[in-house]
Specification:
heterodimer, A: about 60 residues, alpha+beta, four-stranded antiparallel beta sheet, 2 helices, about 15% helix, B: about 475 residues, five-stranded antiparallel beta sheet, four-stranded mixed beta sheet, 17 helices, about 55% helix, about 10% strand, elongated
Chain lengths: ~60, ~475
């Protein structure tokens, strides 16, 4: 029930990998929701080529390649 | 703008679904307004119980004056007089409560009557003295040396006796028994028991001036013992009431009627519209809770969104930093207007408050909401630790709430705290709202507009600078 009403579910804006920038880090679920998995390579809105990597803390992040 | 609006709707819905949020933002301020306005603004004055032990008894019966005094205490609207036989026993029973007691000491009736007679006599003599102008009974200007040379203890000179007779004051014939003359420095005291004379004869500039001698032993006053705990907040009120009754009792014992007053007091209210305490509290509570919703509410929200990963998800959407700030400010502004409307409605319906929110009030509320919401965004953005951010919000908001005088009039504060209050933006916020909404003096709210305007501008810029959207 709580999850249903989360702000990010209520905001009618789709999370998208094109909004990510170098240095962005988050729990793996957030990446998976955007269809991103470890070592995936993609290009953001600014045309920067980024790669999904795993941090020591367990979070995933994106790095410029 | 569309994105910001979308987030604003989501934030508002999120707030409405949070029972704690609604309670602390709307219901809690209403509860406090009702409590404060009722407790401190009731039509009926508070009544304090005063236990009275009457020790002035004759054959087991209360003496007349002590009984009248107890009745006078009971006639005070602020005192509920309860007569008890033994205060000591009662004090033990109420070991953990405030002990408010009064004991009328033995001999009250008799001493009060004697003292009143003495004082009445003194008043009469004083009056006579004043009526005579120079206060002298008569003066002997000739042959002072002859008179004083012959004066010594126990003797009155023939010349002095003659002078007394010339002035119409005949001295007793048996001078050795009933007249005593005592020299004290440059003056003589003449006592004539038979005639009742008690004169002071002073040699002044070659003249002997004869005065009534009023230096006499004074009898004791009637005794009452008032027992109050110093930590009792009602102690000054009870003391004031009892002293007022004693004053009135004293006057009546001197023969003055209730209408015989030297000084008469007429109270005039400053405002003919008849403002009530709720009219003071209402702007205070509105301002204080707009502030706490911004500083505590926004900081807590941001902390919670950080903790549960909501913000991480939002940063992956097309939302920009300005959308985030705009949505938060917008949500707080709408909440501020809703809070104001509900509070005013409750205050008017329950207490008949005289609040008229106009465009100036709306403007000031908008500035306040923007200013304090920005503080919340800055705290949420600057402090990375979720718990610390929430704690910081509380640490800022609560002291400001009480120190700004939103709930308690600043003039009752010690001087240094008054200075502190005038540094706080909340002080200008509630003072400004009071001038606009209650006193209808928008021109006097200029300073409030200026302070809150600068405060809002400074913190909105700081919020923009300190919010690092992509690193959140």
């Amino acid at each position: 029930m709580e999850k249903k009403y989360r702000i990010d579910n209520m905001v009618k804006l789709r999370p998208d990998k094109i909004n990510l920038e170098e240095g962005y880090s988050a729990p793996p679920t957030i990446f998976k929701n955007m269809g991103l998995y470890l070592n995936d390579i993609f290009v953001n809105r600014k045309g920067t080529k980024l790669k999904v990597k795993k941090k020591e803390s367990g979070e995933w992040c994106v790095e410029q390649i | 703008m569309k994105r910001a609006f979308s987030l604003f709707i989501s934030l508002t819905k999120n707030w409405l679904r949070s029972k704690t949020g609604v309670f602390f933002s709307i219901l809690f301020p209403i509860m406090l307004l009702l409590i404060f306005s009722t407790v401190f603004g009731g039509q009926q004055a508070a009544e304090y119980t005063l236990h009275v032990q009457n020790d002035d008894l004759v054959e087991g019966e209360e003496t007349q004056l002590s009984s009248v005094f107890i009745d006078a205490l009971g006639s005070s609207e602020s005192l509920n007089v309860v007569e008890v036989d033994n205060l000591t026993e009662h004090r033990e029973e109420r070991a953990f409560g405030s002990f408010r007691a009064l004991r009328i000491e033995e001999g009250f009736n008799e001493t009060a009557i004697n003292k009143s007679i003495e004082l009445r006599t003194k008043v009469i003599r004083d009056t006579m003295e004043r009526a005579n102008g120079d206060f002298t009974l008569f003066s002997i200007e000739e042959k002072v040396e002859n008179i004083t040379d012959e004066l010594d203890d126990q003797n009155v000179s023939k010349e002095l006796r003659k002078r007394y007779e010339e002035e119409g004051y005949e001295l007793s014939s048996d001078e050795n028994i009933s007249i005593i003359v005592l020299q004290e420095g440059d003056s003589w005291n003449l006592y004539d028991e038979e005639k009742g004379y008690d004169h002071e004869i002073r040699e002044e500039n070659g003249t002997l001036n004869v005065y009534w001698n009023f230096e006499e032993e004074t009898s004791p006053s009637a005794e009452i013992t008032l027992m109050l705990n110093e930590d009792d907040q009602a102690a000054p009120i009870i003391r004031g009431n009892v002293l007022g009754i004693i004053d009135s009792f004293n006057s009546q014992m001197l023969g003055l009627e209730e209408d015989d007053t030297v000084i008469n007091i007429t109270e005039e209210t400053r405002d003919e519209r008849g403002l009530q305490p709720v009219d003071y509290y209402l702007p205070g509570f509105i301002a204080a809770f707009i502030m706490s919703n911004g500083v505590i509410g926004v900081t807590s929200n941001i902390s919670e969104f950080k903790r549960n990963g909501t913000l991480k998800r939002l940063t992956a959407t097309p939302l920009k930093k300005r959308d985030w700030i705009l949505a938060n400010v917008g949500q707080q502004t709408v909440l501020a207007f809703a809070l104001t409307a509900i509070m005013i409605l409750v205050a008017i319906l329950v207490f008949g408050a005289q609040a008229y929110p106009g465009p100036y009030a709306i403007g000031l509320i908008f500035l306040g909401a923007v200013a304090f919401c920005s503080v919340g965004i800055v705290l949420g953005g600057l402090i990375k630790d979720v718990e610390a951010a929430s704690g910081a919000g509380n640490a800022i908001a609560f002291p400001m709430m009480f120190l700004s005088g939103a709930f308690i009039h600043v003039e009752t504060f010690p001087d240094y705290l008054q200075t502190v209050a005038r540094i706080l933006p909340l002080y200008y916020f509630h003072q400004g709202l009071r001038e606009i909404m209650i006193l209808q003096n928008p021109s006097d709210a200029f300073l409030a507009y200026l302070v809150l305007g600068i405060f809002a501008l400074f913190f909105i810029v700081l919020a923009i600078k300190t919010t690092r959207w992509k690193d959140i």
